[in-house]
Write a structure and sequence with these properties.
The structure is a homodimer of 217-residue chains. Helices cover 69% and strands 4% of the residues of chain A. Chain A is mostly helical. Chain A has 2 domains: 4-65, Arc Repressor Mutant, subunit A; 70-214, Four Helix Bundle (Hemerythrin (Met), subunit A). Chain A starts with a helix and ends in a 7-residue tail after the last helix. The A-B interface holds A 40, 44, 47-48, 51, 71-72, 75, 78-79, 82-83, 86, 140, 142-143, 146, 149-150 and B 40, 44, 47-48, 51, 71-72, 75, 78-79, 82-83, 86, 140, 142-143, 146, 149-150. The first copy, chain A, binds a DNA duplex (30 and 30 nucleotides) through residues 25, 27-29, 37-41, 43-44, 57-63. Chains A, B: Residues 1-68 form the HTH gntR-type domain. Chains A, B: It holds the Pfam family FCD. Chains A, B: Keywords: DNA-binding, Transcription, Transcription regulation.
DNA sequence: TATGATCATCTTGTATACAAGTTAGGATTC
DNA sequence: GAATCCTAACTTGTATACAAGATGATCATA
């Protein structure tokens, strides 16, 4: 009844939303019964999930939802930072009007989202859309896809980190500023702002203490 | 007799070296008989290879060695370019002595390799090692790993492209120059040199004509 | 009581039979 | 001869039985 693709996106969502907590066990037979499918296709799904680091497979022991790897988070943030800096500079001064409207619309929605406190879930979705649009406008959607494949740890980290500190407003303002710089063609402004933008305080002991049970040791 | 890991690295090597040509069919049963293993573990290997784009799986039809995707090549080159520019600038002026020796040694070997015309295979290996060392010195080995996972198309393209034009000497000289800039802490020099370094002429019709049978349409 | 071995029962890994889609070639028909 | 349909032979996808390692509880023993 349920196809492999559906099962996969279902599990991905559950893991990314932290509904399935890091360290939880995902047994093949359990999934098999739950989705009324034999173990073989279930294994295919788990294999793929493990390659994308959603799941850690311990042979003959079991499949665990991966713990958040802070090293991976830091590296991915750096990668995003470097890429976006370059992409925004390439857009500076010559951003298509259509794209500009889309981005402005997005930021407006983000603003609404904050005022109405509709939950951070939607905001994060809009945030992703904002960055993705940037990549698209620069002809780098491919690289956005690359980032997505290494996002498991980053997305979960971000979810916890943002919910904790409610920095949403700050982020929205920074986005607004970035867009202004792009329109004005102010590349040095972009450089300076992005320099500390995504350099989130990973090593804040605060975070590690709070979510110790989610983190890879 | 042969383990999954061995089969995988074996197939990877055959594909990267173009011993298995793009478009070649890789049948599960054939591999099964060849390596004396049942289809199940073979399928695991093929699944992973397809996720890393070594292989394209056409359901109920067959598994083909992937054609070289020039779009992917261009994007990966861009990614490398952006990352390395940032990494080298971070190393500029404060590169560890030990690392410097390693890089110089590597360049010397590259030089030898060219003079003795030992075949480009070794040169490309040294080239990879050079860049990898850079990443390592900057604490970005993780990102080198990321690049590797999207390298199938790039590596094969590079192999054909370089063998064809024998630009090896040029590349080696550029590396030498880059290293000098790093030692001197000349970040603008790095910027300028890298700007056109990896921007290989992908869209050279020459290449597409020559290797049409290898290229994804 | 503490300790250690045994074994039942988990888990995933592999082999194999069968289902089902695809394709190419030949027989049939016009 | 040309077109069409059918079939046989591929291919991968799925289900299932069995192999084999890991784990923990239980029971025997010092």
């Amino acid at each position: 009844m349920t196809s492999k693709k559906e099962i996969m996106s279902y599990l991905k969502q559950e893991i990314l939303s932290l509904a399935l907590k890091p360290g939880s066990m995902i047994s093949e037979t359990a999934l098999s019964e739950r989705f009324q499918l034999s173990r073989t296709p279930i294994r295919d799904v788990l294999k793929q999930l493990s390659l994308e680091q959603y799941v850690d497979i311990y042979p003959k022991k079991g499949n665990l939802v991966s713990y958040i790897d802070l090293e991976s988070v830091e590296q991915v943030i750096y990668l995003r930072n470097v890429l976006e800096k370059e992409i925004m500079k390439s857009l500076a001064g010559n951003i298509p009007l259509k794209g500009l409207h889309e981005l402005r619309g997005n930021l407006a929605q983000q603003q609404q989202c904050i005022e109405q406190a509709e939950g951070a879930g939607l905001f994060l979705q809009l945030d992703d859309q904002f960055h993705r649009t940037m990549f698209g406008l620069a002809g780098r959607e491919f690289l956005w896809g690359v980032l997505q494949q290494f996002n498991v740890h980053y997305i979960r980290y971000r979810k916890l980190h943002m919910l904790k500190d409610e920095k949403l407003a700050t982020i929205q303002q920074e986005h607004q500023q970035l867009l202004d710089y792009i329109v004005q063609g102010d590349t040095t402004g972009i450089d300076e702002l992005l320099h500390h933008h995504l350099r989130a305080d990973i090593d804040s002991m605060n975070f590690q203490e709070h979510f110790a049970t989610y983190i890879k040791k």
